[in-house]
Every structure is written in structure tokens, then in C-alpha cells.
Fold this sequence. Notes:
The radius of gyration is 21 Å and the shape is globular. 41% of the residues lie in helices and 14% in strands. By secondary structure, the chain is an alpha/beta fold. It has two domains: 213 residues, Rossmann fold; 151 residues, Rossmann fold (3-Layer(aba) Sandwich), CATH 3.40.50.
Amino acid sequence: MRVLFTSWAWPSHLYAMVPLAWAMRAAGHEVLVAGQPSLAVAAAHAGLPYAPIGSDVDSVGMVRGYALPTRRFGTPAAAPSNGRGPRALRMFQANAEAMADDLVELAREWRPRLIVHDPTAWAGAIAAAAIGVPAVRHLYGVDLMHAARPFLAELLAPMGERHGLEDLDPLGAATIDPYPSDVQVDVDYEPVPVKYVPYNGPGITPRLRPAARPRVCVTWGTTIARVDPERFLAGDVLRALASPEVEVVAAVTAAQREWLGPVPEGVRVVQDAPLHAVLPGCDLLVAHGGAGTSLTGMAAGLPQLLVPQLPDHEAHATRLARAGAAVLLPVDQASPAELREQALGLLHDARAGAAAARLREEIAARPAPADVVPLLEEVAGAFSARPPGLH
């Protein structure tokens, strides 16, 4: 059968779906990824067929407007939200508006039997309803859209009306969830658990020999540097942690290397390596709290020291801290002395290590993406043919 995957132009959202897309292809299904033009390179690197649709949106500018206010960086300038609900929902709406019409047209031409979309790519739900096939959400972290559901009907209504749709259900026919239950929020549906198979983009696996000291990986994802390089704290963190007590590895992109500033002697900088290839052999992850980074750390069984600067990063860090596998350090408290104290404390915290190990074990025990394929085949097969708008 044909399966259409879609995400708006934020590569980490696509990355979460890549293992399932390849599992569908390996099972003999025809897969197509659709998204805005600027996502094409990320899809090509993943080796997946890609159809550009719609137009790009200044999502980076929108994210910049809702960074967490701090004493260190001040309160970001932001335009009025022009509506109810969290400001981020307006960004998702803008991307859906830029994609929906083209995606519906593509879906009508290509005729997939199933549309899989990231939970914030609402155009996927609209296209599925428009052609009468099931929409399946693929989570990449905490299901923040579940709590935002009261606002979604109002935001989706204009797009739905253009295609003759009413009462759109943004939660779709099923939700695939790679997030461990201990860190996921409570929901009123039965998720489809899947093993998180890390895909962090292309790159070369570095050789990290066994270390005589605890090894700490410092990484700051890709979002923060795009939003505001001043908030890219990886360099400050590695300078705070560099000491005879630990070995520090900084995992950054080539473009981020200059933003690190002076690198202390003994700190290794790894450029453009997939994070999942760096974390084995590490004992602690220090990062910004992004969903993909945190989930990759969980899969590696690492305690995490997280310094979030965006609302969703704070939500993920909070859940992980409540599970006992992380410490959330507000950016205004992230002095060199506090970073060092918290990192060394986590390295010697048996409870945090045990909590991180439990999360790794739960992830490892979940069904692999290949094992989820038959379930999606059943979802597509059981979805009765009804007029558009009634699903």
C-alpha cells in the first residue's frame, strides 16, 4: 500500500518518523514524504522519496518570539498571538496553512491508504480527512498537543472549511508513541508503543576509546543556535565542566564550532556526528532539553543535566526530572560552579543512574518499528470508506 509521511520544515520532527518510514519500505510498501521545500535536504539525507509542497514559513522567527524569559537574556520581543492558547500553536497553524491545500491535492493525486504525520503537522490530519483515509500521529516526545486539544478546533476550522470538512479530530485514528511511559503525560487514548530507534541525521561515527574517567557529552541540538546563537551555551558548559575529574566530549555541527569559543585542553569536539553514535561510552548527557536529544539520551541509558530555554524543552526536561533521570537547571542558575556541581552530583547519583537504566530498558523492550507495520496495515484495512469529513 501507499503511505504518505508528512512534517513541517523542522528536521527533528521528520527524524522521529524515519525508522518507521524505512520499516514500511522494507515491508514492501510505497512511501512518500511530503513537506515544505526547505525540508527536502533532510529527507534526501534520510534516503526517502520527497515531494515538496506549500511554502516555507519563518518558523525560526516565531520560535524566537516565545523563548523563555530570563534575567540573562531578557524577555524576547514577540508579536501578539492574535488568539487563544499557547503562542506555539499559532506557529503550527501557520505551517499548516502553508501546507494544507497542496498536501490535499497531492494526496488526491497519489492516493495513499494511510497518512502518518508529526503531531504538530496538522495538514496531515486535514489531507487524510479530505481523501477519506486514516491519519496516524507519530510522536517525537511528550504529547503536548493532547493538552492543547481544546484550542485546536478553532485553529483548524478555516482550513477544514476550505475542503468541506467539519469536526476534524487532530488526534487521528492512532498515535504512535516512542516515549517511555514514566516520562509521558497522561492521555485518554491507548497509544501504540514503539521502540525508539535513534536517527539523528547523517554523519560519521567517531571513534571514542574507553575512558579512564567518567565521560560527559555536551550538546545543544540545532534549534537554539538557529533561534539565537547567544543562547547557544555549549561552549560555556564545556568550559565549566572541563577538569581532571571528567572527560568532556562536545557534539556539535560544523556550523556551531565557532560558537563554542575557546575550547579547554583535553576537551574533544566531535563535528557532524549523529548523537546516537556519540553517546555509547558516555556517562552523562548535558544538553538543552530538546525532545530528540533527550530521547536519544534515554535510549543510551544516561542521566541528563538539562538547561531548557524554550517552553517545550522545559516540558520535556520537567518530565524527565520527575522520573528521577535528570536534573533541570534553569538558565539563570546555570553558573559554571552550579553546572559543575550538578554534573558531578549526577555522575555519582545511583538513583538517577537507576532511573536512566529503567528508561533504557523500557525503550529496548518496546516493539520495533518493523513490528508496528502490521498494526498500521490493519488500521488502513479496517478504515471504512466513508464520505470525506465524516472520519
